[in-house]
Design a protein that fits this description.
Number of strands: 19
CATH topology: Spore Coat Polysaccharide Biosynthesis Protein SpsA, Chain A
CATH architecture: Alpha-Beta Complex
Number of domains: 1
Number of helices: 9
Membrane topology: Single-pass type II membrane protein
Order of helices and strands: HHHEEHEHEEEEEHHEHHEEEEEEEEEE
Pathway: Protein modification; protein glycosylation
Helix content: 10-25%
Shape: globular
Radius of gyration: 25 Å
Strand content: 15-25%
Structural class: alpha+beta
Enzyme class: transferase
Protein name: Beta-1,4-galactosyltransferase
Catalytic activity: N-acetyl-D-glucosamine + UDP-alpha-D-galactose = beta-D-galactosyl-(1->4)-N-acetyl-D-glucosamine + UDP + H(+)
Length: 434
């Protein structure tokens, strides 16, 4: 009798183990749960100090890890800036997939607290090595403060993991006129280059959160489309020429394609126009791997003032005829304010309407001290000069506007009298990282 009871207990125990295994395997897919199941029986590895666990296969699981993990130990080196070694070509802080959620109650104060090494204006440099790349992040913005908060929460540590010298610029469109994303990006390029000699400029939608820090925010030999796999498209590229969401250009690449169009008011069309410009500028589109260029979109409804542009398809059909006369060479705007905030530089601009830069009489604001109009001189529909900076080599440049970066360097907006190609000037930029 006792032997029979012992057999029953053994069978019940085996059945219980099987039920537990089946329950684990049924959760969110077989492969993912097998990894989870075997991890239960794996002895945890001993910690080897602050840098332990920053690389290895355990970081590349499907669930991802906290983007702030292992950043708290970073501190300033006890040597002068001149004696800092260069950062390694591949950052040891990069770990792969990032776990992205949108917690309620998040505040900018908390984001600031979690990023103590970010200085005013949203600037950061690695504290213990000299960055190999200088990247500016340009975010077109209006009435998206809630989304901006989450993007800053993830983007700052994401960029710090890549050991970049970076700054974040939020280009805020003043007023309630129809939104113009591409023109704001033209503004962002010019105003960012006035402050620093950036190697690379990333143009970043405010509602897209990167999910893998191996998606490096540095430029490529060709214009880079970073957001190749968004969750709203099932983590697939919607079509071959798509260039929306998050993209990156060197200053030279930007000039070759005459920047971005200024005439797409409202939602849609400008991404495809930009993709066409890449081809017309004699360039290809570079992309990261599909499993690396992953982004999660913050769900939202279409914004008021950003209604679908009904003219977008007609405009796209004419891009080949209009791209040389509509772009960085015709971008006109007025700077309303520039604020160097703890987490980003906020530049508020008046970019006008479809009828032009001039304000309507009913809504015209009084002149403000320090307000200035910006734009590049235009003659006959083509550029009379192009924006370049003191790194441009091999061209005669006339110094027109000298500004200080606040770091002991001087930068210029200049008219570059370069050889003209296709109706506008192009330049060769030296010392650009690819």
């Amino acid at each position: 009798m006792a032997k029979l009871q012992s057999k029953w207990r053994f069978l019940v125990m085996i059945l219980g183990v099987q039920l537990v295994v089946m329950a684990l395997l049924s959760r969110d897919g077989y492969q993912k749960r097998m990894t989870y199941f075997f991890r239960i029986f794996r002895r945890p590895e001993a910690s080897a100090g602050p840098g332990a666990g920053l690389s290895g296969s355990s970081l590349h699981n499907h669930t991802g890890r906290d983007v702030y993990a292992n950043l708290s130990f970073l501190g300033r080196a006890q040597v002068s800036e001149e004696d800092l070694p260069f950062c390694p070509k591949k950052s040891p802080l990069v770990g792969g997939p990032i776990h992205v959620t949108f917690p309620s109650g998040l505040t900018l104060a908390e984001v600031e607290r979690k990023n103590p090494l970010v200085v005013r204006g949203g600037r950061y440099r690695p504290p213990n090595c000299e960055a190999r790349h200088r990247t500016a992040i340009i975010i077109p913005h209006r009435s998206r403060e809630h989304h901006l908060k989450f993007l800053l929460y993830y983007l700052h540590p994401f960029l710090q993991r890549q050991q970049l010298n970076y700054a974040i610029y939020v280009i805020h469109q003043e007023g309630n006129y129809t939104f113009n994303r591409a023109k704001l990006m033209n503004v962002g390029f010019r105003e960012a280059m006035r402050e620093e000699e950036w190697d690379c400029l990333f143009f970043h939608d405010v509602d897209l959160i990167p999910e893998d820090d191996r998606n490096t925010y540095v430029c490529d030999a060709h214009p880079k489309h970073a957001a190749i796999a968004m969750d709203k498209f099932g983590y697939k590229l919607p079509y071959k020429s798509y260039f929306g969401g998050v993209s990156a250009l060197t200053p030279t690449q930007y000039l070759k394609m005459n920047g971005f169009p200024n005439n797409y008011w409202g939602w849609g069309g400008e991404d495809d126009d930009i993709g066409i410009r890449v081809s017309l500028g004699g360039m290809l589109i570079a992309r990261p791997a599909l499993n690396v260029g992953r982004y999660k979109m913050i769900k939202h409804k279409l914004d008021q003032g950003n209604e679908i542009n009904p003219r977008r398809f007609n405009m796209l059909a004419k891009t080949r005829q209009t791209w040389k006369q509509d772009g960085m060479n015709t971008a006109q705007y007025e700077i309303v304010s520039r604020e160097h905030l703890p987490l980003y530089t906020n530049i508020t601009v008046h970019i006008g309407t479809e009828t032009g830069l001039r304000r309507h009489a009913a809504s015209a604001a009084p002149a403000q001290p320090g307000r200035r109009a910006a734009g590049l001189p235009v003659s006959g529909g083509t550029a009379a000069g192009l924006l370049c900076h003191c790194r441009v080599k091999g061209h005669a440049c006339e110094d027109t506007d000298r500004v200080s970066s606040g770091r002991g360097r001087s930068h210029w907006d200049v008219d570059c009298q370069a050889g003209r190609q296709g109706g506008f000037s192009t330049v060769e930029s030296g010392d650009v990282a690819h």
